[in-house]
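S.,

Sequence below, as promised.
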Amino acid sequence: MFGYVLVSAQQLSEEEMNCYRSHYCGLCRSLKKHYGFVGQMTLTFDLTFLSLILSSLYEPKCEIKCTNCIAHPFKKHEENLNEFSEYAADMSILLTYYKCLDDWEDDRKFKQLVLSKLLKSKSKRVRKLYSEKIEFVREKLSELNVCEKENETDIDKVSGIFGKIMEEMFVYKKDEWEPVLRRLGFFLGKYIYILDAYEDYEEDLKKNSYNPLKGKYDEESFDENIEKILTLMMSECARAYEFLPIVENTAILKNIIYSGVWLRYEEVLKKKGKIKDN
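The prediction came back faster than expected:
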């Protein structure tokens, strides 16, 4: 359910892309620092966006390192390390751990069970620092499990539960920007959940797995309605973003919110044969 919050590289300057990569690499480095190689396996663009937007809003002191890594052994690159790359790393572990448990529960994916056990052994830091968030995520995932068992088809209801999980991830501290960040995270979470359900529909149907869109896929205006819903979710997300007094990295953040998130949607449409791959 991750990998939907992308950046549209072609629309950014080289300097802007280097900045984005520095946050991506900073998150990767933070994952390695606290959780080792297993932690690095949880690296996503979605949590890079979290690190980037919080860093841009609060403007923390950053440590910029120019270094090599396994992924780029011959070319040095910048890593932007700050308190929000650390926070995003912690949230990455938290979300991935419970996502793995959910995948094991739903589809008996053994690989996910193994990864969940590896992550649990590494997650002392998260349990120590974010016990309240852990309990909140557990509660919401339990609600989602109930919806799945009852074959809930109210997409607004079930996506809203995941939206609440993402909302909680976007709150780093209780201050004047908490309500805005909550709203941004909530609608981004709903967007991710709905697009994930739309992407997986055919596969879930074959496996007889739960999907909240079952029974709606054969409707004549189904694809059009999904696009309208997704557009509404990102419109609300963008509206929340515009309330934040962000000065740094605005071109990158707007690129992601207004353009980048739609790249995966286009990939889904191509995979479904809804649009032609040029």
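Residues 9-271 form a domain with the Farnesyl Diphosphate Synthase fold (CATH 1.10.600.10).

Coffee later?
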